[in-house]
Every structure is written in C-alpha cells, then in structure tokens.
Amino acid sequence: MLPRVAIGRPNASVRANVDRYRLLVGDGLMDEVTRLARELSGVRICHVNSTAYGGGVAELLSRYLPLVQGFGISAEWRLIHGAPEFFTITKSFHNALQGAHYDLPESAQTLYLSVNEESAQLLDANYDVIVVHDPQPAAIRHFAGRRNAKWIWRCHIDSSAADLQVVDFLAPYIDEYDALVFTMPAFLLPRLDQARASFIAPAIDPFATKNIDLPIELCRRAISDSGIDLERPLLLQVSRFDPWKDPLGVVEAYRIVKREISGVQLALIGAMAGDDPEGWRLLDLVQEESARDPDLFVFTNVAGIGSMEVNVFQRGCDVVVQKSIREGFGLVVSEALWKEKPVVAGRAGGIPMQFPEGFDEYLVDGVEECARRITHLLHHLGERGRFGRAGRERVRSQFLLPRLARDELKLISEVVNGKTG
Ligand code: UDP
C-alpha cells in the first residue's frame, strides 16, 4: 500500500549552463547573480511544494533549480504528497485565497494539518533555508519547528481579494516564517506582518523545451498534423482547466469572433495537474463544446501534449488568449510574448505587469471585449507584429530566469544575514 503521505525528490541535481543567458540578459545581471551565489556558497536551500507537473509553480521550479545550481548554489526540491482528499481541500484553499467563499469545515482543517505534520516529520533537517510554496505545505514550518533554518513562504496566488476565513486559519502558520514573498503588493494577505513581505515576480526560461526557438515551418507542419487548418486563423489558450482561467469564456469569445471571421479556429491546451481534482470536471465541459464544433480543438497532457507541443502551438497560432479572471502571474503570457505573439488577456493579477507599454488596450474585462480585441488583431497583421516584438523585449528585460534568481538570492542572502525576518 502506498504511504498516506510522502515527501519526494524531483530532479535531484541538474546544473544548467548559465553562460548562455549572458547574451540575452547582459553581463550586469549575470555578474550580480554570480556574486550573490558566491556569497551564499555552502548555504543549503530547499524548496518545498506539492506538485512536480502541471501549473506554473512546478514549471518554474523545474527550470529555476537547475539554473541556481548552475551558479553553484546548493538547492533541492522536495515534494509533499497527500491523499486526493488533501488536494481537494487545498484546491478549496487556493480558490478561497483567490476570492471564492469557502466554509472551512473542522474535518478539512484536521486533514490539512495532519498531512502537513506528517510531511514535516519526513523532511530532512539538514537545510539552512527552506522555501515553502503556496498554501498546500504552508503549515509544515509549524510542525517542523525552526531546525536552525530560515523559513520563507512564497505565495504564487492572486490573493488580492482573499476569503478571510481561510486567511484567518492559515495566518498563524504563515506568521511563523522569517520572510514572505508575494508576486505584487496587491496580493499581500491581511493579518500578516507586512514588514516581512517582499515582492518578486516569476520568470520564464528561454532555454526550456517550451521556449526554445523552433523553425516556424516545423511548427506549422506539426499543428496541421493535429487536424488544424493553418490557412485559417488560429486562437490559442494554454491553461489548466480551471474556472479562474475561464476556458468557457474563451469559447464564448471565439464564437463571437466567428460571427465576423467564420474560418477562425480555437485550440485549448490544458495540462491536468496532479493536485487539481476540479480540472477534470471543466475538461468534460469544454470537450462537450468541442464535440459539437469541428473548429474547436481540445488537447491535454493526458493525450500526450507536452512542453514541445505547447511551444509549437504558441509559435504557430495567430493570437494567444489568456482570459483569466484571477491570475497569480500567468507564465503563459510571458511565454507567448517571448515568441512574439500578441496576447489578449484578462486584466487580472500578474498579467498587466507583463504587457509591453502601449498595448494595454488588449487587457480585457469581459467576453465581448475579448472578442473585439481578438477580431481587431486578426484584421491587423502589422499590429500583431508590433505587439509581439514589444512583448519579447519586455520579457527579455523583466521576466527571464536570471532576474528571478537575482531577486530570490538577494532575499535569501538578507534573510540568512538577519536583515529580514
Ligand atoms: N502548461 C503546459 N501544458 C498545458 C497547460 C499549461 O505545459 O497544457 C504550462 C504553461 O505553459 C505554463 C504553466 O503550465 O508554463 C502554467 O503556468 P501559469 O503561471 O500560466 O498558470 P498556473 O497554472 O500556475 O495558474
């Protein structure tokens, strides 16, 4: 029988070749990361989260850790596993932190705490800094005790309108951390010591399979093989099937666009995350829509869609849509902009900061507006090109992995040296 709780170790030690980033981000930033890494030499860092695949945190850690290891940092990744009921509860926490109401039952509190307690017992004690991501393992600090380590809680969620019942429950556990990191000031949770908070935005890896340059002809051929006609326009949303990503709203917007541009097609690509039971229900709904419409395509990682396919579709489509209602950051937005694709996206959470200056009109607040902005871009090839080029430059200067490494290592250095926490 599988243990009820386990703590795994994905990608034990892979070092990225850091020099290749120099040409993209410049010597100044790379030298700063090198200096910080030297300062932190011998400091053992551990990142803890709850899923190794599906979703932005897993994506981020899988690329971030090899990068900092490439700079000589000792960094490990540990994963807490719990039974499916645990993830149903933590998904409700996630939703509540994003603003959904949740009547937190006693039984949920008990199970959440017991999985955190057992995970804490399984976590080795030999780290100097432990970075815990998101609410799933947030109480692990409480049960582990200090252990001579510094503890950082890193929240990736758009918690700008969090449900206070869940905040009240989690706050005493989060309050035990030495430092807190949110993506932007608007996400800072109430009830916490604001002086311990920092703000760091995530980033993408230009050398990940998902983002590496690919010949456009290859992308077009691969997309055509999946039954899509690239003589006609293609819209794309790549997202977990999650109500906050509003895939049904994307379908609605696409239907409105279709009234004017009848040949338009829509591809929805959605990874099913291990810690996201809600996703399967939403997948059924979009698959029903797709069964009735030969121009609406739904692909999942279950059917073999991986990073390379995401890359291919992001490069080969005409307009990327990210119609989020709440969004912690939305790595997919930077991924698309990096590939010089125009993006029509919900004006939510971490999305606007990724947009290049002068293109805010493509941040939308509803289905009708989303459809109008998509239609406009489909009619204006030149605008698509300008938007894409400005987007790539914005991502190059702000949202590539070395900038994230600099900001995080700087914070860790401050925490270790007692300037924060
Ligand atoms: N992703 C993927 N396949 C999919 C759907 C998503 O590889 O079918 C990736 C996507 O490319 C991005 C990450 O998962 O790198 C999602 O991160 P984001 O910040 O956009 O959203 P989250 O899922 O964390 O809310």
If you had to describe this structure to a student in words, what would you say it looks like?
Strand 5, helix 7 and strand 6 form a beta-alpha-beta unit. The mean pLDDT is 94. The relative contact order is 0.13. The protein has a 7-stranded mixed β-sheet with strand order 1-3-2-4-5-6-7. The protein has a 6-stranded parallel β-sheet with strand order 10-9-8-11-12-13, sandwiched between helices. It contains 15 helices and 13 strands. It has 421 residues and is α/β, with parallel strands linked by helices. Helix 4 crosses helix 5 (106-122) and helix 12 (331-338) packs across helix 14 (381-398). It has 2 domains: 12-203 and 400-416, 3-Layer(aba) Sandwich (Rossmann fold); 216-398, Glycogen Phosphorylase B (Rossmann fold). The protein has helices spanning 22-25, 27-39, 56-70, 84-97, 106-122, 140-144, 164-174, 216-225, 247-260, 278-291, 307-316, 331-338, 367-379, 381-398, 401-416, and strands at residues 6-8, 44-49, 74-81, 129-133, 150-154, 179-182, 197-199, 234-238, 265-270, 296-300, 319-322, 343-346, 363-364. Helix content is 43%, strand content 14%. It binds uridine-5'-diphosphate. The site of uridine-5'-diphosphate has 20 residues, from helix 3, strand 9, helix 11 and helix 12.
